[in-house]
Amino acid sequence: MPTYQVKLSGREQVAEGTMAFRFEKPAGFSFKPGQAVAFELIDPPAGDGQSRRTFSLVSAPFESTLVVATRMRDSAFKRTLKALPTGGAIKIQGPFGDMTLHEDRARPAAFIAGGIGITPFMSMVRQATKDARPQRLSLIYSNRRPEDAAFLAELQGLERQNPDFRLCATMTEMSQSARRWDGEQGVVDAALVRRCVGDIAAPVYYLAGPPAMVDAMQEVLRGAGVAEDDVHSEEFYGY
Q1: Which fold has domain 3-96?
Q2: pTM of the full predicted structure?
Q3: Fold match between 3-96 and 109-235?
Q4: So what's the pLDDT on residue 74?
Q5: Which of 56, 79, 95, 156 is the most buried (most CB within 10 A)?
Q6: What is the per-residue pLDDT across 35-84, written as a single tens digit (0 to 9) for each?
Q7: SS3 215
Q8: Which residues neighbour 125 within 8 Å (Cβ) at sequence distance 6 or greater?
Q9: 109-235, what's its fold?
Protein backbone atom coordinates (compact mmCIF):
# COMPACT_ATOMS: atom_id res chain seq x y z
CA MET A 1 0.00 0.00 0.00
CA PRO A 2 1.56 3.33 -1.05
CA THR A 3 2.67 5.94 1.50
CA TYR A 4 2.66 9.70 0.84
CA GLN A 5 3.78 12.79 2.70
CA VAL A 6 1.16 15.53 2.53
CA LYS A 7 0.89 19.09 3.83
CA LEU A 8 -1.96 20.63 5.78
CA SER A 9 -3.69 23.36 3.77
CA GLY A 10 -6.45 24.32 6.19
CA ARG A 11 -8.82 23.39 9.01
CA GLU A 12 -12.32 24.38 10.09
CA GLN A 13 -14.89 23.58 12.74
CA VAL A 14 -17.80 21.67 11.19
CA ALA A 15 -19.81 21.07 14.40
CA GLU A 16 -19.35 21.60 18.11
CA GLY A 17 -16.25 19.63 19.03
CA THR A 18 -15.65 18.43 15.46
CA MET A 19 -12.92 19.66 13.13
CA ALA A 20 -12.23 19.05 9.45
CA PHE A 21 -8.63 19.00 8.20
CA ARG A 22 -7.74 19.65 4.58
CA PHE A 23 -4.55 18.30 3.03
CA GLU A 24 -2.88 18.63 -0.33
CA LYS A 25 -3.77 15.75 -2.64
CA PRO A 26 -0.71 13.82 -3.88
CA ALA A 27 -0.24 13.51 -7.61
CA GLY A 28 -1.74 10.27 -8.84
CA PHE A 29 -3.69 9.58 -5.64
CA SER A 30 -7.05 7.98 -6.43
CA PHE A 31 -9.74 6.41 -4.28
CA LYS A 32 -13.37 5.36 -4.26
CA PRO A 33 -15.97 7.34 -2.30
CA GLY A 34 -16.25 5.82 1.17
CA GLN A 35 -12.65 4.62 1.45
CA ALA A 36 -10.24 5.51 4.25
CA VAL A 37 -6.60 6.45 4.78
CA ALA A 38 -4.21 5.98 7.69
CA PHE A 39 -2.53 9.11 9.05
CA GLU A 40 0.84 8.88 10.77
CA LEU A 41 2.54 11.69 12.67
CA ILE A 42 6.03 12.47 11.40
CA ASP A 43 7.16 13.81 14.79
CA PRO A 44 4.91 12.13 17.39
CA PRO A 45 4.94 13.27 21.04
CA ALA A 46 7.74 11.64 23.02
CA GLY A 47 6.68 8.54 24.90
CA ASP A 48 3.22 8.39 23.32
CA GLY A 49 2.25 5.36 21.25
CA GLN A 50 -0.63 7.01 19.38
CA SER A 51 1.14 8.10 16.22
CA ARG A 52 -1.24 6.53 13.68
CA ARG A 53 -5.00 6.77 13.17
CA THR A 54 -7.39 5.76 10.41
CA PHE A 55 -9.99 8.18 9.02
CA SER A 56 -12.59 7.90 6.27
CA LEU A 57 -12.20 10.56 3.60
CA VAL A 58 -14.89 13.23 3.63
CA SER A 59 -13.73 14.63 0.31
CA ALA A 60 -14.91 13.08 -2.95
CA PRO A 61 -12.54 11.82 -5.67
CA PHE A 62 -13.31 14.79 -7.95
CA GLU A 63 -12.07 17.30 -5.35
CA SER A 64 -8.54 18.69 -5.45
CA THR A 65 -7.76 18.16 -1.74
CA LEU A 66 -8.09 15.35 0.81
CA VAL A 67 -10.34 16.12 3.78
CA VAL A 68 -10.97 14.20 6.98
CA ALA A 69 -13.12 15.13 9.97
CA THR A 70 -12.90 13.99 13.58
CA ARG A 71 -14.30 14.58 17.03
CA MET A 72 -11.60 16.44 18.93
CA ARG A 73 -11.15 14.04 21.84
CA ASP A 74 -8.33 14.70 24.28
CA SER A 75 -5.70 12.37 22.84
CA ALA A 76 -2.05 13.02 22.04
CA PHE A 77 -2.66 12.32 18.36
CA LYS A 78 -5.51 14.80 18.06
CA ARG A 79 -3.75 17.46 20.08
CA THR A 80 -0.78 17.17 17.72
CA LEU A 81 -3.03 17.22 14.66
CA LYS A 82 -4.86 20.31 15.93
CA ALA A 83 -1.55 22.09 16.55
CA LEU A 84 -0.10 21.20 13.13
CA PRO A 85 0.61 24.49 11.33
CA THR A 86 -0.59 25.22 7.83
CA GLY A 87 2.05 23.71 5.58
CA GLY A 88 2.99 21.16 8.24
CA ALA A 89 3.53 17.62 6.97
CA ILE A 90 2.02 14.27 7.90
CA LYS A 91 2.24 10.82 6.32
CA ILE A 92 -0.76 9.02 4.85
CA GLN A 93 -1.13 5.45 3.67
CA GLY A 94 -3.94 4.14 1.51
CA PRO A 95 -6.57 4.21 0.32
CA PHE A 96 -8.26 1.08 1.65
CA GLY A 97 -11.65 -0.19 2.75
CA ASP A 98 -14.71 -1.67 1.07
CA MET A 99 -17.37 0.74 2.39
CA THR A 100 -18.16 1.72 -1.19
CA LEU A 101 -21.35 1.86 -3.25
CA HIS A 102 -22.58 -1.27 -5.01
CA GLU A 103 -22.44 -1.19 -8.79
CA ASP A 104 -26.10 -1.97 -9.53
CA ARG A 105 -27.46 1.54 -9.96
CA ALA A 106 -31.00 0.24 -10.39
CA ARG A 107 -30.97 -0.74 -6.74
CA PRO A 108 -31.21 2.05 -4.12
CA ALA A 109 -28.66 2.63 -1.36
CA ALA A 110 -29.60 3.62 2.18
CA PHE A 111 -27.00 5.12 4.52
CA ILE A 112 -27.52 5.17 8.29
CA ALA A 113 -25.00 7.37 10.11
CA GLY A 114 -24.54 8.16 13.77
CA GLY A 115 -22.47 11.25 14.63
CA ILE A 116 -19.02 11.27 13.02
CA GLY A 117 -20.01 8.13 11.12
CA ILE A 118 -21.25 10.58 8.49
CA THR A 119 -17.76 10.90 6.97
CA PRO A 120 -17.76 8.09 4.36
CA PHE A 121 -21.26 9.05 3.24
CA MET A 122 -20.25 12.67 2.63
CA SER A 123 -17.76 11.45 0.03
CA MET A 124 -20.37 9.20 -1.59
CA VAL A 125 -23.12 11.83 -1.75
CA ARG A 126 -20.78 14.58 -2.98
CA GLN A 127 -19.48 12.39 -5.81
CA ALA A 128 -22.93 11.07 -6.76
CA THR A 129 -24.28 14.63 -6.94
CA LYS A 130 -21.33 15.81 -9.05
CA ASP A 131 -21.77 12.87 -11.44
CA ALA A 132 -25.59 13.17 -11.52
CA ARG A 133 -25.51 9.44 -10.73
CA PRO A 134 -28.95 7.94 -11.52
CA GLN A 135 -29.33 5.98 -8.30
CA ARG A 136 -31.70 6.56 -5.42
CA LEU A 137 -29.75 7.44 -2.25
CA SER A 138 -31.26 7.90 1.21
CA LEU A 139 -29.37 9.08 4.28
CA ILE A 140 -30.66 8.68 7.84
CA TYR A 141 -28.42 10.84 10.02
CA SER A 142 -28.74 10.68 13.81
CA ASN A 143 -27.25 13.20 16.25
CA ARG A 144 -28.02 14.42 19.76
CA ARG A 145 -28.57 18.03 18.61
CA PRO A 146 -28.21 20.09 15.42
CA GLU A 147 -25.12 21.65 17.00
CA ASP A 148 -23.45 18.21 16.90
CA ALA A 149 -24.38 17.37 13.30
CA ALA A 150 -21.31 17.83 11.12
CA PHE A 151 -21.98 18.91 7.52
CA LEU A 152 -25.74 19.19 8.14
CA ALA A 153 -26.17 22.43 6.15
CA GLU A 154 -24.16 21.02 3.24
CA LEU A 155 -26.26 17.85 3.23
CA GLN A 156 -29.44 19.92 3.14
CA GLY A 157 -27.99 21.77 0.16
CA LEU A 158 -27.05 18.53 -1.60
CA GLU A 159 -30.63 17.29 -1.13
CA ARG A 160 -31.88 20.39 -2.95
CA GLN A 161 -29.35 19.88 -5.77
CA ASN A 162 -29.77 16.14 -6.24
CA PRO A 163 -33.28 14.84 -7.00
CA ASP A 164 -32.10 11.28 -6.32
CA PHE A 165 -30.88 12.04 -2.77
CA ARG A 166 -33.08 12.21 0.32
CA LEU A 167 -31.86 13.35 3.75
CA CYS A 168 -33.67 12.18 6.90
CA ALA A 169 -31.92 13.79 9.86
CA THR A 170 -33.09 13.05 13.39
CA MET A 171 -32.11 14.53 16.77
CA THR A 172 -32.29 12.55 20.00
CA GLU A 173 -31.71 15.25 22.67
CA MET A 174 -33.41 18.43 21.47
CA SER A 175 -34.09 19.45 25.08
CA GLN A 176 -30.34 20.18 25.28
CA SER A 177 -30.26 22.30 22.10
CA ALA A 178 -30.38 26.06 21.69
CA ARG A 179 -31.47 25.80 18.07
CA ARG A 180 -34.83 25.31 16.42
CA TRP A 181 -35.40 21.95 14.75
CA ASP A 182 -38.47 21.07 12.69
CA GLY A 183 -37.28 17.66 11.51
CA GLU A 184 -37.42 14.16 12.95
CA GLN A 185 -36.69 13.53 16.62
CA GLY A 186 -35.87 10.32 18.44
CA VAL A 187 -33.76 7.26 17.80
CA VAL A 188 -33.66 5.50 14.46
CA ASP A 189 -36.20 2.68 14.36
CA ALA A 190 -37.88 0.62 11.65
CA ALA A 191 -40.69 3.17 11.29
CA LEU A 192 -38.21 5.98 10.54
CA VAL A 193 -36.35 3.78 8.06
CA ARG A 194 -39.61 3.04 6.27
CA ARG A 195 -40.56 6.74 6.17
CA CYS A 196 -37.21 7.54 4.60
CA VAL A 197 -36.66 4.69 2.15
CA GLY A 198 -40.17 3.40 1.42
CA ASP A 199 -39.84 -0.32 0.69
CA ILE A 200 -37.51 -1.34 3.53
CA ALA A 201 -36.24 -4.43 1.67
CA ALA A 202 -35.36 -2.57 -1.54
CA PRO A 203 -32.04 -0.84 -0.72
CA VAL A 204 -28.57 -2.05 0.09
CA TYR A 205 -27.78 -0.61 3.54
CA TYR A 206 -24.56 1.00 4.78
CA LEU A 207 -24.12 1.67 8.51
CA ALA A 208 -21.47 3.84 10.17
CA GLY A 209 -21.28 5.14 13.72
CA PRO A 210 -20.58 4.14 17.33
CA PRO A 211 -20.46 0.35 17.79
CA ALA A 212 -23.62 0.26 19.94
CA MET A 213 -25.53 2.21 17.30
CA VAL A 214 -24.30 -0.03 14.47
CA ASP A 215 -25.31 -3.14 16.44
CA ALA A 216 -28.75 -1.67 17.16
CA MET A 217 -29.31 -0.81 13.49
CA GLN A 218 -28.34 -4.31 12.41
CA GLU A 219 -30.98 -5.66 14.79
CA VAL A 220 -33.60 -3.20 13.53
CA LEU A 221 -32.96 -4.14 9.90
CA ARG A 222 -32.82 -7.85 10.65
CA GLY A 223 -36.13 -7.60 12.50
CA ALA A 224 -37.64 -5.76 9.53
CA GLY A 225 -36.71 -8.60 7.19
CA VAL A 226 -33.64 -7.08 5.50
CA ALA A 227 -31.25 -9.79 4.30
CA GLU A 228 -27.91 -9.92 6.15
CA ASP A 229 -25.98 -9.74 2.86
CA ASP A 230 -27.66 -6.39 2.13
CA VAL A 231 -26.18 -4.70 5.22
CA HIS A 232 -22.61 -3.35 5.29
CA SER A 233 -21.21 -1.70 8.39
CA GLU A 234 -18.27 0.25 9.78
CA GLU A 235 -17.75 1.16 13.43
CA PHE A 236 -16.29 4.47 14.64
CA TYR A 237 -14.68 4.29 18.08
CA GLY A 238 -14.87 7.92 19.15
CA TYR A 239 -13.34 9.34 15.99
Answers
A1: Elongation Factor Tu (Ef-tu); domain 3 (2.40.30)
A2: 0.93
A3: no
A4: 79
A5: 56
A6: 999 999 987 765 555 788 999 999 999 999 999 999 998 788 888 899 99
A7: helix
A8: 111, 137, 139, 155, 158, 162, 165
A9: Rossmann fold (3.40.50)
